[in-house]
Task: inverse folding
């Protein structure tokens, strides 16, 4: 059996080891359609050959915009098989933001799903360096459709193998300065995180993938681990249909973020109003043989864990960050340390600084931020420690606990990281607002505003709300300001006139 | 349709059905979080037997706007 050092190796390894078994299942017109590991490798090879033919001389960065689907995964790994760099972008962003990240990642090929193909013209204008836009789905003009490329290059294989230290992917994450940062992950980073946990007979089991695939939590834990263990990936085609798809696929495990975990728990509680046998309700929703839910992306409260237990369902909490590919701690089934965020994964060194910040060193730690040495220097020390920005402690059994955040970043229960400054900056030249602070109040993004006393208006609150609606329209729903609080006094400030955020949070 | 939608809404948030109007905003007035709203859209597919385009539906801010979209796709 070959050694797995790169994502391309992983695709070949999975084909060699699991061959005709199902790599993924997806619903196509209400039918479940399987695709084998072998077919997946062939399709990735075909696409990889096309990419190498178009860019024979140099490394190329390729952005992918869309939700999880077989064509999406083929694009991701086809890029890898051509020894190039994948740039998965958040498909919930608007075209301007997508264009900005295409440009800042120097992408020259862009793969678009059916929801974004209509934006091709606009993206083409905004991103002049892009040579090819490829549709992941058949489209009317049929200019470049991934299915046609795969058909045309059927049976061909790309040449060469990347080095494990080479860049594999750039993933954007919210920065504290307001501008997203491109996390550079090497092949070694992603493979280390995929293979760091022992295999507990996952071969032949099923994992339903629910979270956005541009998040590394979903990508590593569902997709890469699926290839590594021979665990079939069941693609949930829409967040609208989680419970329906749980019934169709009957997976052994799923990955959730706390918001989804909470919502599904509420549905079960509601079902229990008509059927008081909670264990039966748990089985009705998750199936007879369901094993465990893994939760990550944000802190999961012990109440949710206890709530699931009443329904006979285990939920285990993990912890990580994009900069660490992402796992730092893994959820442990049956763990009784409900306040912890999981057990530190093997091979990951953790130290707690004098200021109680959690610092991490492992092969999973990123190469740095793409073309952003200043931010890299703030996050990665010269001797290789990743400063997580989270405060906490570890216990004698290797479990980690989070007590707060050093950086000013909102982590919503859906796992989205929101930079308050990114939202606040939208109000910089808006006359009715003198000062604004954006924070998370019980999972609700709140804008607290001190209106400009020199601005004359009959209804300043309405004017500010109108501006908020306009700003919201530029962001994905998860980042919308849901509440406006008007204050009568200026915000408390430091001697250098900076707003003291900690004081505002204390008042919530 | 408003009455059926009110029933679905009340399965997700603690709202008084009497006070839900076409002008009610899902997030600000009814207290939906983004996932509950998306999940309710999934239930609406079953309740009304049509297929929803998630991207279009999540852009609807008020009960009235969502009903208007539902009426469009059920025609």
Result:
């Amino acid at each position: 059996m070959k050694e797995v050092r790169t994502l391309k190796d992983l695709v070949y390894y999975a084909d060699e080891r699991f061959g005709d078994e199902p790599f993924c299942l997806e619903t196509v017109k209400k039918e479940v359609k399987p695709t084998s590991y072998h077919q997946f490798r062939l399709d990735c090879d075909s696409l990889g050959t096309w990419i190498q033919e178009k860019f024979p001389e140099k490394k190329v960065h390729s952005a992918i915009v869309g939700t999880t689907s077989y064509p999406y995964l083929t694009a991701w790994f086809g890029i890898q098989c051509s020894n190039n760099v994948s740039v998965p972008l958040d498909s919930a962003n608007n075209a301007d933001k997508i264009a900005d990240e295409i440009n800042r990642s120097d992408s020259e090929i862009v793969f678009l799903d059916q929801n974004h193909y209509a934006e091709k013209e606009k993206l083409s204008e905004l991103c002049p360096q892009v040579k090819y836009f490829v549709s992941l789905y058949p489209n009317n003009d049929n200019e470049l459709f991934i299915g046609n490329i795969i058909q045309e290059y059927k049976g061909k294989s790309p040449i060469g193998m990347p080095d494990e230290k080479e860049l594999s992917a750039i993933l954007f994450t919210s920065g504290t300065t307001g501008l997203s940062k491109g996390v550079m992950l090497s092949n070694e980073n992603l493979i280390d995180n995929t293979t760091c946990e022992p295999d507990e007979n996952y071969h032949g089991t099923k994992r339903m993938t629910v979270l956005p695939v541009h998040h590394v939590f979903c990508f590593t834990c569902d997709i890469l681990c699926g290839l590594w263990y021979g665990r079939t990936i069941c693609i949930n085609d829409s967040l609208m249909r989680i419970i329906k798809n749980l019934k169709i696929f009957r997976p052994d495990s799923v990955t959730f973020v706390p918001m989804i975990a909470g919502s599904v728990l509420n549905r079960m509680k509601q079902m229990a109003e008509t059927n008081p046998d909670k264990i039966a309700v748990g089985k009705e929703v998750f199936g007879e043989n369901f094993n465990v839910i893994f939760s990550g992306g944000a802190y999961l409260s012990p109440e949710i864990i206890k709530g699931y237990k009443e329904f006979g369902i285990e939920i285990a909490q993990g912890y990580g960050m994009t900069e660490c590919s992402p796992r730092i701690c893994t959820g442990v089934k049956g763990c009784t340390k409900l306040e912890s965020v999981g057990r530190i994964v093997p091979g990951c060194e953790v130290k707690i600084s004098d200021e109680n910040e959690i610092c991490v060193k492992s092969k999973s730690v990123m190469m740095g931020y793409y073309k952003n040495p200043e931010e890299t220097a703030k996050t990665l020390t010269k001797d290789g420690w990743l400063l997580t920005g989270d405060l906490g402690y570890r216990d004698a059994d290797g479990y980690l606990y989070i007590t707060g955040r050093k950086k000013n970043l909102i982590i919503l229960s859906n796992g989205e990281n929101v930079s308050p400054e990114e939202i606040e900056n939208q109000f910089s030249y808006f006359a009715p607002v003198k000062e604004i602070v954006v924070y998370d109040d019980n999972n609700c993004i709140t804008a607290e505003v001190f209106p400009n006393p020199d601005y004359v208006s009959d209804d300043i609150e309405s004017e500010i709300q109108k501006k908020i609606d306009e700003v919201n329209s530029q962001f994905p729903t998860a980042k919308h300001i849901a509440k406006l609080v008007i204050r009568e006094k200026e915000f408390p400030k430091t001697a250098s006139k900076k707003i003291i955020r900690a004081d505002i949070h204390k008042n919530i | 349709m408003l009455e059926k939608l009110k029933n679905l809404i009340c399965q997700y948030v603690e709202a008084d059905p009497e006070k839900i109007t076409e002008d009610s905003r899902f997030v600000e007035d009814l207290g939906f979080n983004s996932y509950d709203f998306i999940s309710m859209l999934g239930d609406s597919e079953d309740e009304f037997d049509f297929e929803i385009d998630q991207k279009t539906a999540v852009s609807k801010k008020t009960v009235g706007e969502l009903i208007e979209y539902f009426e469009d796709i059920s025609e």
About this structure: The longest helix of chain B spans residues 34-48. Chain B touches chain A through 19 residues (CB under 8 Å). The two ends of chain B are 13 Å apart (CA to CA). DSSP finds four helices and no strands in chain B.
